[in-house]
TrEMBL record, chains A, B, C, D:
GO terms for biological process: UDP-N-acetylglucosamine metabolic process. Transmembrane segments: none annotated. CDD domains: GTB_UDP-GlcNAc_2-Epimerase. Keywords: Glycosidase, Hydrolase. GO terms for molecular function: hydrolase activity, hydrolyzing O-glycosyl compounds. This is UDP-N-acetylglucosamine 2-epimerase (Hydrolyzing). It comes from Neolewinella lacunae. It comes from the Bacteria.
Length: 388, 388, 388, 388
């Protein structure tokens, strides 16, 4: 009988939301006897302006194999391209040092392409988590391009599995694990009480609000292909929510071309109008955030959290604009265009409706363990051929 | 009646073979009244070690809008990744300066990914020429990933067109123009005489050979996924061809990880053995090269020229190893593994057979004009959705 | 008689304060018949977080030859090094495109080294403005290193001229033009009335203040070699100034490793304490800022404005810490350590003293014209030898 | 009594000649109980085209802490600038990983600036070896600029020590250790017999030569500021040496803008003329090379080996052109311009003269040990002030 060294699995996390989305998978990899986790933290996950996700990662007990600073500052799309180019240059050095057996890239943010290219060009087997979905901006191109670079696909829904196979991937290399973010939501659904003081724990900007009568949560990101409109779009939402006079917990957008438009829109609006029922947060630890969602009357904006976790939790969602176009939805989502009146009406209807029955469309709560098992079992090939 | 400015079409050429392959399209774009050509020359196309393709480009009458030096030197795969990262950084500056209406990227060499990412991340409509084919190495990943980043697809065969559509691209965005390299071959087929002294015109290394009794042409590139074997593979071919005692025109490989293995193999072999019937060339102007091919008894190696131009010209080909796996073939190709005896036998059979009837599988000679027409007519969208 | 084309003079501006400092030279170059200005805007001068100096530059009537985004985001010194490396890569492309006859770099910020290296490595004559001074941090290394890379030195004081010559530069290549920032101050000294509403014009954060009874101006930057202390240092100043209860106009620091410490210190302090007599500005057009200074009771902090423009204007200055160590001073400056009590005492003494007699130690108001004349007259050599 | 951890001394070697020059210092650092060597190999020292110095480094028993590929390929000065920019980006990551207490940079090749900037910007004490000398091209700017960035200076001659102090460095930080290359020459001088078969050991190109009647050694590099003339210069030397009909051992130039001109000049000349008494080598292990020099009738070209090691060995040198201008010489050097006749005459005179008496101008053979001792003893400051 021979014993082999554990597989070195290098996971690259480039942003706060990506971390939340795969946290249970990271724990499962870390705990798996046949796997060694090499966690690389890069991009906006290191930056204070975007909530320094790296602090949460360390607080969760992970040790960090390498930090990669590659965010080129600038309020334009060129900066996104250069951030990606820089990411390739830096990550290829990191991979050369760490010598991983497998590299894992998560979802479809623009800079994840850097992970995919560095790994595939260096002949390291590449695993893509959460491919096969459909949305409405540059992510759409990035996601499917990474599918074509990846050797193994761990997807979050049956719909996504079918789509990856149609893209010409060998069916045996495509596995539906569900989404690890649902693993976290499962714990929260089991015990959803909002049993901590979020103002004390997270500070933020604005007055302390009385949440006992219910509250809204808002989270709206800029849409890459609608870059120039980011500021106008956020102002429409600001006007809608401000008019409702409900206690509102507003979360800042993450880094993206146009996030300066979005951020600026929020900042200017806040300085111009008194918003005593608004409180702004930069970020929140994942399970705290889920607890906040689970108790919300409605989530407003365009976050994928509304599509995934809220489906499982049954929380009503008003989804604004094109960012989540094409993603499978549970019954909890009401879609509206960029239009203040439509947003107001939809929020009122969702608040009136209250909680929806839970949906398992994005998995049943064991995705992290399934991902780790698959990483231990999969073949380590980095060569593939389209199936047709 | 309104007159509009011509569309600015930015074509990025990163290597000598890519240039040959789209030269007639470049002329057609340059001549089209509704198009302005912005020709960017990058990568190995600028380097002396790889034949300074840029000299031929200028000699052909093109003016060059920008030169991009992005080849990072190093005998490993990391250098390919970094060359691509650097290419993104440089090309994004070039696109910001040139403000093209459309960017065109050609085929599937690893560094063409830089063009695709820079353009798509900057919301510039991206046209991919010669997607949809199938081969056996990293090109396979790169080619289909670029398809998923591109907005319009001008493919070289019906087979390729069907494959791009199956990849989820909107059928109206996929057009079979045939391959522009066949346009050049059409002129040569019409008048194939080898009416110039190639030793005087191109120098090269080795004795002047008597070609009047027929000759072989050899062109063998390293295969990315077989990087470590590059030297052994070239030695098998060297041994096979050396044993045949036929006048042999050998062309150096282009830049790739492993080309140092290939180059070194050739260099060492040449210093160890007397090879009086070999002559080595670094490169040759495209139509001269086609004329050399058209009069060859057989092309040996793994160049795509054997699959495309030689199909149209009917020249016998011995295709070695995996590099052209999965590409449609005409009847002129005989495939062999990396094996000296098999190579020898196949060459002997092909030489004995002589010229094959021509095949139009990669187009009929008007691809350049069709590409220009399509660039003038196409919609300028940079947002798309998978069809399923 | 022959006419020659005007010399192409490429000036690279990388930050707001550098622009203010050479604005009159830029106008003089632009207006000179034998010179063509190629203005490149780079680094933090393009970024909203640092006041988007590029908007002022365009409002002043300059056209911009190239924009270079090279600020790598990250709260550490590695980011400064990488920003400089990236600057070299980008600027070398810009110089290759613009083909300047001369490149001009200003002062001693870390990223100006990128301009100096790109130009000198490309054999373009390099002119350094404001070398030869002495300060107390990384600027000290950068400034003298650039002197050794530069071919011509246009310095701001006699003291600086002597020092550059002692560094082994040929005396004929070193010219004391005075500092162009004094050119602007000359106009303000002639007519110093604060005749505009700065709250209306610049917004900023905080209450509208009554300035009629006098006010303080504060401007404190982090010191590179004291990176880890940036936050503590700014808190000492905040405490000192807050205790004085004088109307205070506070200007944000520019980008530097540690500026996040400085910025955060300010932000947190502001959220914790009520500071009704503080108003925060991000930036201000140069001559407006000089007017604000000219009417201030005292400038507090570590800005070089206190050493230069305030000497000429006679404005009392409390200079804190090591950042301006070794720079020649007029009689208007009182130096204090990082110590709240010492800062408070010095401000009180300076406020009590009132305006000082003007000093010409940094020039008499015609530096811009002298710089342009020197650029037109100088030899275009890029090769030099140390004088000893 | 406390024991402290050994100091981590990170030495960056970027080229074959730099390695030879500090090899004894590396051994002494490695052996010193209070020091830990972190050896970083970068630039052309990793590349096959330039002799893969890294193989010799490993064969000498050193373990390599990091490899940095940063050579951007291209036949122009822009590539030198970009190689340096890339070097900063890569080395700053390396330093962040290795966390050295001290960084050591060697001499004055253009890319050593990358080491100097990365270290000084990251507040790591920087030691410069072999500053303070004088030469005639871009090295002159680079060398003195690095002096101004460095915190400690270990120079090779008294002349150099005086010059660094005149540059404003604190005298206590400047130590004349002599040149470590002389340490190697000391062993060779003690036992100079050419007791190995260099053709068998190093291969190379050309016939096996009979060296028993004496031979010439040639080593000529391009001069950066005379970039365009590189090919013409090498042809003058080729013509001169070819006319002498003496057995000639010719060494290829190292990487530099223009080395392609130099290399091409050699290659073309070699293909055009029969040179039966020439043998070309790419590189040679240091002490073998010194043994070859020690037995040569004359060294021809512009290598610094002629100035340093040959002074100590007493070998006659014909030094061509400007590259070594301003360096202290022993009596063994005869300087000539770029002129075939002058080169021929000088070689004939030097061959006729024979061996010169040894000179200790560049040290007496213990430089390596002195450098290690100084690295263990020096203060670890990274902040300095010019002395005047």
């Amino acid at each position: 009988m021979t014993t082999t060294a554990p597989r070195k699995v290098c996971v690259v996390v480039t942003a706060r939301p990506s971390y939340s989305r795969i946290k249970t998978a990271l724990h499962a990899i870390d705990a798996h006897p046949e796997l060694t986790l090499q966690l690389v933290v890069a991009g906006s996950a290191l930056l204070e302006r975007y909530g320094t996700a790296v602090h949460y990662i360390e607080a969760d007990g992970f040790s960090i194999a390498a930090r990669v600073f590659n965010v080129l500052e600038g309020e334009n799309l060129t900066a996104q391209a250069k951030t990606t180019g820089l990411g390739i240059m830096e990550l290829s050095s990191v991979f050369a040092n760490l010598q991983p057996d497998v590299v894992v890239t998560v979802a479809d943010r623009f800079e994840t392409m850097a992970t995919a290219i560095a790994a595939s060009y260096m002949n390291i087997p590449l695993v893509h988590i959460q491919g096969g979905e459909v949305t409405g901006n540059i992510d759409e191109k990035v996601r499917h391009a990474i599918t074509k670079l990846a050797d193994r696909h761990l997807v979050a829904s049956e719909d996504a599995r079918q789509r990856v196979i149609r893209l010409g991937e060998v069916p045996e290399t495509v596995v539906n694990t569900g989404c690890p973010s649902i693993d976290l939501a499962a714990a929260v659904r089991a015990s959803p009480a909002l049993d901590f003081d979020l103002f004390a724990r997270y500070g933020g900007v604005g007055e302390r609000l009385d949440l006992s009568g219910g509250y809204l949560v808002v989270m709206q990101h800029p849409v890459t292909t609608e870059y120039a409109d980011a500021r106008r779009h956020i102002e429409l939402t600001l006007a809608a929510v401000a008019s409702l006079n409900l206690p509102t917990l507003w979360f800042w957008p993450n880094v993206d071309a146009g996030s300066d438009g979005t951020s600026k829109g929020i900042r200017v609006y806040r300085e111009r109008y008194r918003l005593p029922h608004f409180h702004f947060f930069k970020n929140m630890e994942g399970s705290d955030f889920l607890r906040v969602l689970a108790n919300a009357r409605c989530l407003v904006g365009n976050s994928s959290v509304g599509i995934r976790e809220c489906a499982y939790l049954g929380v009503p969602v008003v989804n604004i604009g094109t960012r989540q176009d094409g993603r499978q939805r549970g019954p909890n989502v009401r879609d509206v265009p960029y239009d203040t009146e439509a947003i107001v009406a939809a929020i009122q209807q969702q608040v009136a409706h209250g909680l929806f029955p839970p949906s398992n469309v994005y998995g049943g709560g064991a995705a992290g363990a399934m991902i780790a098992a698959e990483l231990a079992r999969m073949g380590l090939s980095f060569s593939k051929r389209i199936t047709y």
